[in-house]
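user: can you give me the structure for this one chain? tokens are fine.
assistant: on it. calling the predictor now.
[tool input]
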Amino acid sequence: MTTTPRLVIFDLDGTLVDSNRDLVPALNKATATEGLPNISMADVGHVVGKGALQMIERAYHFHGRKLEVGGPTHKRLLDRFVEFYEQNLTDKTVFFPSTLLALDELSKSGWQLAVCTNKYERLARKLLVQLGEAARFPVVTGGDTFDVKKPDPQHLIETAKLANVSPENCIMVGDSVNDIAAAQAANMPVIAVNFGYSDVPVEQLNPDRIISHFDELGGAVADLSHN
């Protein structure tokens, strides 16, 4: 008797790991080269899920400074941000409480695990290696892996294909509108964590389930897989 492969696809920043601890300092280090004061995690952290370019925009907007979106300064700051961030990927970044226990339980229950993030793929892989957990995720895709990224559903669909799992046998876990919208468009059940970096309450995004701690993940996955 063969078992149908099943896959849980996770977002990374704000879902599996609390990476604001290193992302925001890298942002401040980059924008300081253009004379901007530091910005706090509370003031910028909720846009992390939308990418570094929007974090830079947010910093400029917060300080009332003008920035040509997509212009040379914006692009220069992105390069500096990535450089500074890559040097300090996991200085303070940690998995959210009970994440690894929840992943253990999913694996014991026969679920495969993957990461689908809008972070550059190499940075996502390097982060997981540095945290010692890369082996849990045979498939990792980033915002530059394909020609599309979340909220485009094809990002999730192609991630599933790399894992040799049909999209209808996948569940998405994320923290922001990009994750939830991509899953909904891909017809994948989606679980939202309410402790991540969403710029709106996840309740407003109509995920299939909401969890406030990884202790709740196994039950939510089991529930959705039986529907």
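assistant: here you go. The chain has nine helices and eight strands. Strands lie at 6-10, 17-18, 94-95, 111-116, 139-141, 170-174, 190-193, 209-211.
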